[in-house]
Amino acid sequence: MRIVPIAAVAALLALTSACRTGGNPYPEPIEATDGVIVVGYNDFAVLPESDNRVARPMLMVEEPYTGRFFVNDMRGPLHTVSDGGEVRLYLDLDDPRWGRPVEDSGRERGFQSFALHPQFGMPGTQGYGKLYTWSDTEDTGPEPDFVPGGGDDTHDTILLEWTASDATASSYDGGQPRQVLRLEQPFGNHNAGHMAFNPLSGPEDTDYGMLYVGVADGGSGGDPMDLSQDPGSVFGKILRIDPLGSNAANGGYGIPADNPHVGEAGVLAEIFATGVRNPQRFGWDPTNGDLFVADIGQNSIEELSRAWAGANLGWNDWEGSYRFIERGVLDMSDPRSDPDLSYPVAEYGHGDPLLTNRAAITGVVVYRDDAIPQLRGRLLFGDYPSGEIFHVSADAPPGGGEDAIRRVLLRDETGQRTFLEVIQATTEARGLDSTSRTDLRFAVGSEGRVFLLNKHDGVIREIVP
């Protein structure tokens, strides 16, 4: 038997402890006053209640051909909003006639995202009238296209294609939706994510009509089945598919020939990027086409990262810039040491004093317009429980950490306020339930318009100079 001196054991334990942390990896807080950008805001629209409760919007998208906005509610409704703020129900995913009841229990399940085909309003095109929805459902009867290989089989997440006969109609006038793909979910959280077509691509581009689909790691905590780094698993990935194609295994969608892993043995050809935990939002820089992903962290770090074809954002080997050991524990000894990964351009710790009610990142708006001069050249994101809105340079974003992250505050007749304070004033005035969180989401429109959504007062607000 080899005898190790006690002094050597103590030294080893001290070294191991120094390389691990269960606390805040960024003890220097985000600057609260310096570098603050102040903007105004106007109420744009008020969403109706669903199931006798305040609406839970996730996403708002402008449809250029009819000039309407579409906005979803996690309980199932999809509304249109006119430029004058008039709200009308367009489609309800939870309507019994569709036979796919929405699973919306808890904070994370429900009608996750949607996307309008870029040809939605163009008669005579293949994509005319086509709308795609990404939702959790109680309907688990049909065979899933992808299974996690473990967990509790809590529900399914389905991508559906709806085809309106008249894209200008005030409500959906098409038939039953077509199932594009279906996932079996192992746990009740981290189910899906954002979904979008690249708004910068035109008919002459290979990216035109390609649908980017965020798939979270399946849930629980820490990615217990190591799905995010499994190249044969759909979970913990951003997919890129052609919803009008048919060469996928199920025949329900196409796999673009220029996807980064096409023909690569053991890797799903649908994968665009790997290693995400909960990609709730992503967005493109209109100047250079860079794709930024807001990926919700585990217990320590929230991260905003670039993603490109074939990129690996690191989860669950890494949380932000540091190696992930277990929930709440990181190895701080050798940050950013894997050259093959895409590390965050901005990240912040859960212990920051600006945050309330836990932490989760949201975004992403790369602002290149002139309508709101204060925001020009800034990359906007936020923390959706606290409602803090942050900005960094869009041209020279930081290399991670909080050193360059600054705040955006809202000004009204009472002075400068956080988004949470604005919502709290509205809920109090209207006799709604008080809230300590916002569940902030951003939306963008043409001509440099930026909107703020939340799940506690039903009001959609537009940022103004």
Structure class? mainly beta
The stretches of 5 or more residues where confidence is low (pLDDT under 50) are 1-18
Residues in helices, as a percent range: under 10%
> How many DSSP E strands?
29
Largest sheet: 9 strands, mixed
Oligomer category = single chain
- How many helical stretches? 2
Mean pLDDT level: 94
Distance between the termini: 74 Å
CATH architecture descriptor text of the domain at 57-374: 6 Propeller
- Shape descriptor reads globular
| Percentage of residues in DSSP E strands | 25-35%
CATH superfamily of the domain at 57-374: TolB, C-terminal domain
Assign the CATH class of the domain at 57-374: Mainly Beta
Query: CATH fold name of the domain at 57-374, please?
Result: Neuraminidase
The radius of gyration over CA amounts to: 22 Å
